[in-house]
Structures are given as structure tokens and as C-alpha cells.
């Protein structure tokens, strides 16, 4: 008797479970998966993005109480994504923006519809204004296989160490692969981080297939440019994300190089008008201008495309970023960590010999692409260049603490050395005359 009842109960449970299984063959699921957050750029807001296998409504229920009723509701929309692979796999990507969030307050949410809800996640709304100290995790080149940095990033996230993540291009290796199933797997893998922190991105070369369609569809970045280039404000910083890939995949549109360049210039002009309030200008783009790795990548060439532009003269970014006094340039693509002395046109512009990063007279470059992927690490050239300050060929990621208007703290975490800090540096720039380097 008893055991019969027990079996019935178990069966029932099993049935319940199997109906919720993600994309199981023959049973498309309305249950949300691949939940992640992004900051749409307006204070007090946060966007939730997720995937379902059947079209459903797009709703987020949220509140400030850990358990029990979620009193607040926000609605959004979904778009249908059709992958470019032979199977033309189809899924539905939902976007809902929460507004009117209290700065710095913790929220609990779930997303979905009456046909299926996600589990509950937590996040903290970003603080408003300029007088606070944002903490970021920064890295590129994180794959679905060999994602070395993920376990520690998950732990850091649970402990509330960050306000946001900057993923500087190259995801999943690749999101389009296996008819975009690798993209699904990757997005599930990062969910424990990305469903709790705004996960801010830029495209890398591994996103290239079908004109970056997986990248454009899966992420929800500020602005109306499919996340290819955009900027946002965070405490005392203005952060600019852009695509180095427009310089390399010219068959998707040569005009994109020029279009982005003009956008960058006008965004930098605006940022400089607001520089008293937000002194730091930080850029992120996938392929570096400089690097001292032992490969044949663009950054190993004297006249790299990103630095000097097409044909060594059209729309190069080094002059532009120097002219507008960009403080910090974050890059990836090389699967290693490298920090440069303040640099412009191959000349080192230390603040002083003893404290090179105090009042630096040129932008500081950080290349952080060692979060872990199937391609493993990239070796360095035998002899470091005179402009290279620190090189670390270990898996890891960067912590960026924008302390206030004059001080930024950069640390490199090594996953090969159980979380040891293997680089630690402060950039100090005075508020006065911020834009000018000379
Ligand atoms: C690729 O995408 C960009 C931006 O979404 C678009 O402007 C361009 O026309 C596309 N190129 C092709 C060849 O479809
Ligand atoms: C910049 O500073 C570093 C550290 O003090 C030093 O090793 C390097 O030689 C300096 N470079 C120049 C060009 O002054
Ligand atoms: C900015 O932060 C640095 C490092 O914590 C500190 O020494 C400095 O006094 C701060 N400046 C202001 C204006 O608070
Ligand atoms: Fe790359």
C-alpha cells in the first residue's frame, strides 16, 4: 500500500520534472533558461533577458523580500531568433526592463510567464550618481569548455564582490557552433554570475558568424545598436564599449568602421563635457592595439589595424583615444594578462620614473583574455617590449575598483594560483585638466 502510494508520488514528480526539461527533444519548454542581466543605462533600471523554446509572454515578478510574495511586475517583449546553422534552430529571447529601482537596494526576481517560471535570483540595483566606488570583474575569452575563471567568479558574485561584469569579447567558442547549442550551453553556464550582475559585453572575433547574429540576439546592451557599440555611466566613470571587429570583417560592411569612429568621437566629446562629474573614461574593445604575445595577431604588428586604422591611416583609434584623454583601455583576445606603461605611439609616458601611474601622460592598457577557453593560454614573445610592464601567462581575470574621481585600483587574480593576486596597481590622475596628456 504504502509503497504503491510512494511510486505514484515519484512518477508524478518525474512527470513534473520532465515537462520542465530544457529543450528536451519533442517537448519544447516554456520554462525560462539562460537568465542574465544588463544595465540599460538609465539610473534605477535593469534589464532581464532569457530564452524559451516556445513563444510565451515576457514577465518579471520582483520584490525586496527574500521569501514569499513578489509584489512588483514588469512586462516586456520577446523576439524570435533563427540560428544560421543548417537546422535553423528557433528560439525566443525575452527582454524586460525593470524601472524605478531603489539605488543600491537588493531585489529578488523571477522571470517567465504563467506557462513556466525561472527560479528566483537576486541582484543589487546600481547606485546612482557619481559619489560611489564601483567594483567590476573584467575578462575576455571565456569558453563553454575550459572556463577556468568561472568557479571563482561565481563565488565572488555570491559574496557580493562586484557591481557589474565586463566581458571583453569572445564567448562560448562559439555561440553559433553546433547549431547554436554551444551558445545555449554557455549562457546556462554563466547564469549564476550573469543573473545576479549586469553582464556588459562587446563583440569579439568568435562572434562573427552570420554577421554576429548570436551576439546581437542574446545580449541586451544600452542604446539601439544591437550592442555593437554603446556607452554608459557608472559612478565616477564613463565606460565605452565598441567593436574592434569592424576593422577585420569588412565584408559585413566597410561603412561600419567609419560609422563607429564618428560615434566614438562624438561620445568622447560628450564625455569630456561631463568630465568634472565623471572624470574616468574607460574603453573596452576585444583586439588590443599593442601586445607582446608570440603569435601573428594584429597587435603584434607595428601598425596594428586597431591602433592605426585601415591601410595604416583610416580611422585608427590610438590618436582618437589620446586626443580625448581616455584613461584606461581594456582589451582581451590574447589569452594572457598584460599591463603596459602609459603609452602613446610606442613612447612610454610614465607619470614619473618612481610612480609611473601617478599622473600618467598617456593612456594605460590592460589586456585580460585569460578567463579560460578550449584554445588555452597564449605564450609571450621571449623578450618583453620596453612598453610592457607586467605579463602573466596564467588563467585568471581582472578586478577593477573605481575608487573615486582620482583613484582606480586594478588587480589580476590568478586561477592557476588559487586566487592569488598576481598584479596590483593604482592609477592616480588629478581632476584638473583631465583631458590633456601633455
Ligand atoms: C551586418 O550587420 C550590421 C549591423 O547590424 C549591418 O549594418 C550590416 O548591413 C550587416 N551586413 C550584412 C552584409 O548584412
Ligand atoms: C617607466 O617606469 C618604469 C617603472 O619605474 C621603468 O621601469 C621604465 O623604464 C619607465 N620608462 C620610461 C620610458 O621612463
Ligand atoms: C580617493 O581614494 C584614494 C584611495 O582610497 C584616497 O586616498 C583619496 O583620499 C580619495 N580621494 C577623495 C577625494 O576622496
Ligand atoms: Fe579573440
Describe the structure.
The chain has 438 residues and is of the alpha+beta class. The chain folds into two domains: 33-124, Immunoglobulin-like (Sandwich); 130-428, 4-Layer Sandwich (Purple Acid Phosphatase, chain A, domain 2). Helix content is 19%, strand content 30%. The chain has eight helices and 28 strands. The protein has helices at residues 2-19, 150-158, 177-189, 191-194, 209-218, 255-273, 305-308, 317-323; strands spanning 33-38, 46-52, 59-63, 72-75, 77-82, 90-98, 106-113, 116-117, 121-124, 135-139, 142-143, 164-167, 171-172, 199-201, 230-234, 237-241, 280-284, 309-310, 314-315, 328-331, 337-340, 343-344, 347-348, 364-368, 388-392, 396-402, 407-414, 420-428. The strands form seven sheets. Strands 15-16-17-20-24-21-25 form a seven-stranded mixed β-sheet, covered by helices on one side. The radius of gyration is 22 Å and the shape is globular. It starts with a helix and ends in a 10-residue tail after the last strand. Residues 32-124 form the Purple acid phosphatase N-terminal domain.
Amino acid at each position: 500500500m504504502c509503497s504503491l502510494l510512494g511510486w505514484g508520488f515519484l512518477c508524478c514528480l518525474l512527470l513534473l520534472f520532465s515537462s520542465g526539461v530544457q529543450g528536451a527533444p519533442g517537448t519544447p519548454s516554456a520554462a525560462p533558461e539562460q537568465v542574465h542581466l544588463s544595465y540599460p543605462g538609465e539610473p534605477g533600471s535593469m534589464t532581464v533577458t532569457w530564452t524559451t523554446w516556445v513563444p510565451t509572454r515576457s514577465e518579471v515578478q520582483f520584490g525586496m523580500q527574500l521569501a514569499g510574495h513578489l509584489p512588483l511586475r514588469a512586462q516586456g517583449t520577446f523576439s524570435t531568433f533563427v540560428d544560421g546553422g543548417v537546422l535553423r534552430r528557433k528560439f525566443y529571447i525575452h527582454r524586460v526592463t525593470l524601472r524605478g529601482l531603489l539605488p543600491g537596494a537588493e531585489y529578488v526576481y523571477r522571470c517567465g510567464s504563467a506557462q513556466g517560471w525561472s527560479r528566483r535570483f537576486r541582484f543589487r540595483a546600481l547606485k546612482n550618481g557619481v559619489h560611489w566606488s564601483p567594483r567590476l570583474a573584467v575578462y575576455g575569452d571565456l569558453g563553454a569548455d575550459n572556463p577556468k575563471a568561472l568557479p571563482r567568479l561565481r563565488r565572488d558574485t555570491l559574496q557580493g564582490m562586484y557591481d557589474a561584469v565586463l566581458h571583453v569579447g569572445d564567448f562560448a567558442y562559439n555561440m553559433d557552433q553546433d547549431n547554436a547549442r554551444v551558445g545555449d550551453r554557455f549562457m546556462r553556464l554563466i547564469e549564476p554570475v550573469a543573473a545576479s550582475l549586469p553582464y556588459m559585453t562587446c563583440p569579439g572575433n568568435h562572434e562573427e558568424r552570420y554577421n554576429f547574429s548570436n551576439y546581437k540576439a542574446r545580449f541586451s546592451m544600452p542604446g539601439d545598436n544591437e550592442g555593437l557599440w554603446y556607452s554608459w555611466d557608472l559612478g565616477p566613470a564613463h565606460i565605452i564599449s565598441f567593436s574592434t571587429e569592424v576593422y577585420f570583417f569588412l565584408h559585413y560592411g566597410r561603412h561600419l568602421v567609419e560609422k563607429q569612429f564618428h560615434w566614438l568621437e562624438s561620445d568622447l566629446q560628450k564625455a569630456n563635457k561631463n568630465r568634472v562629474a565623471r572624470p574616468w573614461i574607460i574603453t573596452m574593445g576585444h583586439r588590443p592595439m599593442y601586445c607582446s604575445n608570440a603569435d601573428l595577431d594584429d597587435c603584434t604588428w607595428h601598425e596594428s589595424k586597431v591602433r592605426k586604422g585601415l591601410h595604416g591611416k583610416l580611422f585608427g583609434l590610438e590618436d582618437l583615444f589620446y586626443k580625448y584623454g581616455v584613461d584606461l583601455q581594456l582589451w582581451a583576445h590574447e589569452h594572457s594578462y598584460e599591463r603596459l606603461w602609459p603609452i602613446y605611439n610606442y613612447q612610454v609616458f610614465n607619470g614619473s620614473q618612481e610612480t609611473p601611474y601617478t599622473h600618467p601622460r598617456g593612456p594605460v592598457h590592460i589586456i585580460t583574455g585569460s578567463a579560460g577557453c578550449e584554445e588555452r593560454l597564449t605564450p609571450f614573445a621571449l623578450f618583453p617590449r620596453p612598453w610592457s610592464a607586467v605579463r602573466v601567462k596564467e588563467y585568471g581575470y581582472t578586478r577593477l575598483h573605481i575608487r573615486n574621481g582620482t583613484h582606480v585600483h586594478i588587480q589580476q587574480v590568478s586561477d592557476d594560483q588559487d586566487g592569488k593576486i598576481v598584479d596590483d596597481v593604482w592609477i592616480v590622475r588629478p581632476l584638473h585638466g583631465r583631458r590633456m596628456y601633455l
